[in-house]
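Researcher: I'd like a candidate sequence for this fold, 442 residues long. If you have to choose between options at a position, lean toward the conservative one.
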């Protein structure tokens, strides 16, 4: 993906409209899902967007608006747009015509000013014939569709990695200029690289470049990939510059309850809602119970993996809260995908901002996330996966673990655990991997 910024300079030859809205700049991002164009305007603007055929065009009419200067030198090679034309109507209205490469569906909305930007008119272009090619796991490694039979060949565990923010949304910005979207994507890429080295795990990126993906779009992509785990990576900010440390969040019960109502009301989701169980032929009460059971299991799994990751983060640096927190983040609301959100540190803290920009520190965070993910799946391998079919489970020893505590966790005797691993004593070291024997096929 390439980011394009076209500065628009004031030129004296333009029509003099004292109260006209001015377009001061245009920015454009392209992603696997489409193209986003952003028009920086100096005030609220009335606009209308529609499409024309033969050839395909998107027309944007802006009321009582002028460009500060013509747009030139645009590179559209990676976008859905192949050209842009502008003209005035009735001497005070601006018409922008986007010549597009294929049939598209436009969506537009106006954003209010923020600390970084003024008013912005956003126009999203999406291909009519579905999304553009999306990076995905290879067919051999992709999880089976919900509700389908488990294939004879064991599949990989699929981990969806979500780098927060992106494109027009920079997230938090530190005093030194670090932008959350860039820190999150860098850590996400490092985690992806580490997971690719693990046998039996396939990572997939929710966004692979500097473009925006809607919050619910992130959920949809995770479910599209049949993810066994969704991990969203962010960098926190707070008014108190002394706030520091990483945090781990899962969905709150209140957030789960409100989301359940939304999913049950969305009939288009019913055929593939909770692990392939169709709710189309269920009455309202039964559908609600089934969704509640699915959510409870998902939240429990989220808490489990979140706790393991938090323990690893404690070993790699300071944490903000010693327990997994609960919040109503939209990206955590998939009813059947265990989901966690990791705040990797406070970008508003000068010291942590410097650390978050460090490749070495980012690698340390990614390694902590990896170890937490491995610990969780070694203890809870999903059915049908390579790890589950290997006939054995594994446990990555963490600081504070003892042979007895690990044995209790897996409901086996310490002697059996010691024997299975060829240990001459009950002494174990953090970082070592123990084989957990399977008893009675469990």
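Model: Candidate sequence:
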């Amino acid at each position: 993906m390439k980011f394009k910024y076209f500065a628009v300079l004031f030129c004296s030859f333009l029509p003099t409209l004292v109260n006209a809205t001015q377009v001061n700049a245009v920015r454009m991002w392209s992603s696997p899902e489409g193209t986003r164009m952003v028009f920086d305007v100096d005030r609220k603007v009335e606009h209308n967007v529609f499409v024309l055929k033969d050839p395909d065009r998107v027309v944007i009419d802006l009321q009582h608006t002028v460009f500060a200067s013509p747009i030139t030198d645009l590179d559209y090679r990676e976008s859905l747009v192949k050209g842009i034309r502008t003209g005035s109507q009735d001497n005070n209205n601006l018409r922008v015509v986007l010549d597009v490469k294929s049939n598209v569906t436009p969506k537009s909305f106006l954003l209010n000013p923020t600390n970084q930007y003024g008013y912005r008119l956003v126009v999203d272009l999406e291909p009519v014939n579905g999304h553009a090619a999306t990076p995905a796991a290879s067919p051999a490694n992709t999880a089976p569709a919900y509700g389908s039979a488990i294939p004879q060949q064991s599949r990989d565990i699929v981990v969806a990695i979500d780098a927060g923010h992106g494109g027009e949304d920079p997230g938090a910005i530190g005093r030194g200029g670090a932008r959350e979207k860039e820190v999150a994507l860098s850590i996400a890429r490092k985690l992806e690289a580490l997971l690719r080295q693990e046998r039996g795990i396939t990572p997939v990126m929710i966004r692979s470049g500097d473009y925006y993906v809607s919050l619910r779009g992130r959920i949809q992509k995770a479910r599209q990939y049949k993810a066994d785990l969704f991990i969203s990576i962010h960098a926190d900010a707070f008014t108190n510059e002394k706030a520091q440390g990483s945090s781990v969040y899962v969905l709150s019960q209140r957030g789960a309850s409100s989301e359940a109502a939304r999913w049950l009301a969305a009939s288009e989701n019913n055929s593939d809602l909770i692990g392939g169980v169709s709710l189309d032929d269920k009455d309202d009460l039964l559908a609600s119970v089934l969704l509640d059971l699915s959510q409870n299991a998902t939240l429990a799994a989220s808490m489990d993996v979140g706790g393991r990751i938090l323990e690893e983060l404690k070993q790699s640096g300071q944490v903000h809260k010693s327990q997994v927190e609960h919040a109503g983040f939209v990206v955590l609301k998939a009813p059947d995908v265990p989901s966690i959100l990791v705040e990797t540190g406070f970008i508003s803290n000068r010291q942590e901002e410097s650390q978050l920009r460090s490749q070495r520190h980012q690698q340390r965070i990614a390694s902590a996330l990896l170890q937490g993910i491995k610990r969780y799946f070694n203890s809870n391998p999903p059915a049908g996966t390579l790890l589950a079919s290997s006939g054995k489970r594994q446990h990555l020893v963490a600081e504070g673990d003892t042979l007895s505590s690990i044995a209790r966790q897996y409901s086996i005797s310490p002697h059996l655990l010691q024997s299975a691993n060829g240990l001459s004593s009950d002494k174990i070291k953090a970082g070592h991997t123990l084989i957990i024997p399977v008893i009675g096929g469990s």
